[in-house]
Design a protein that fits this description.
Layout lengths: L2 H7 L12 E7 L7 H5 L4 E7 L40
Antiparallel strand pairs: 1-2
The structure holds zinc ion (ZN).
């Protein structure tokens, strides 16, 4: 069974069209999918071309981890000595 020959028979000429798999997407300067936090932090957001479904393609499932909405950082005060007694799974 020679499937490839059959497939090649029906190939069009040497015209090149932008493949449908190539999509235009916004990407944060971090290389991830830009979120509202990126915009809030005035991060640079680019528009670029990606292969749809590629791991490089920014996706909502992979939002930018750099510009995340964090609560106001609490400056280290006398109360928190950083004893590391809290088991917050930081590692
Ligand atoms: Zn970002």
């Amino acid at each position: 069974m020679n499937v490839m020959n059959k497939l090649h028979k029906n190939l069009p000429g040497a015209t090149f069209k932008k493949p449908k798999k190539i999509i235009k997407a916004s990407v944060c300067s971090s290389g991830y999918y830009p979120t509202d936090s990126c915009k809030a932090e005035k991060a640079k957001i680019y528009t670029d071309y990606f292969v749809s479904g590629s791991y490089l393609c920014p996706s909502e499932k992979n939002p930018c981890p750099v510009h995340v909405a964090t609560p106001t950082p609490v400056p280290p005060g006398p109360e928190g000595n950083g004893n590391g007694n809290k088991n917050n799974g930081n590692g």
